[in-house]
# Entry
Amino acid sequence: MSFKENVKYELECRGMLIKELATVSGISRRTLDNYLRENESQPTVENAVRIAKALGVTTEYLVTGNEADKNVKRTAPELPELDIGLCKKYYTTLQKLNEMPDNTKNLLCKLISEWKKK
# Structure
């Protein structure tokens, strides 16, 4: 996969919006949109590093798509350690969620966020 596809995949996996990535990475949303659109422009090395850091992956993974290069130590509070037991418990639910249209996923995420507030 390309840089653009890898970034989009990581955003989807984290349920993160481009505007959230812009905030965390310090890169403008417009610049990120340019990297992710059809005729994408390539990020500078500095921006690629900032994007990778914000997503909790390595720059090498975003460039190559090689899963062996993916993991970095997660130190940011918004990127907790992966709970394998929890992943296994909700695996089928996550598969079903992944098959839903994006607008349905977004609505479900908003609903869950509202429930968390109560």
